[in-house]
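Could you please consider the sequence and fold following this short note?
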Amino acid sequence: MSALPKLATLARELGVTKGRISQMKAAGMPVNSVAAAKEWKAANVRARFDVDREAADPVAVVTYDIAEARAKREHHEANIAAMREAQLAGDLVERKRVESALTGIAAQVRANFERLPDKLAEVLAAETDAHQAHALLTAEIDLVLEDLAAQVGAVELVDAGRH
């Protein structure tokens, strides 16, 4: 009569740990021969032990690809470098600088338009010719719009210290 194989021998032959051999033995795996154990494992292990291995083992579910992470980081760093280069060249400006400049210009234009009645009230009241009144209004509006264009043209959005 031949001796029964040891758990270590079964584990090595089946490619599992001794603890797994004990689990499979409790589930009905024969341990009297390596061949019988292999046959039982082929028929039963996938169905009973390994079906949800990834779901049961959270470490197995989480995979981390270092090369992919590095590629993503390098991609983002390249984008940031391109934005810095564009900013230094004056092609890209900070949003808050644009908002600040536009707010200041809009406030000045509004003030200029609000002063028009004060500037023109007496002149227009004395004017009897509608065409002349229209020409005076148009000329003053043109001055306000020219001032607007000059302000927009003079806007400095790029920090002079960055060049």
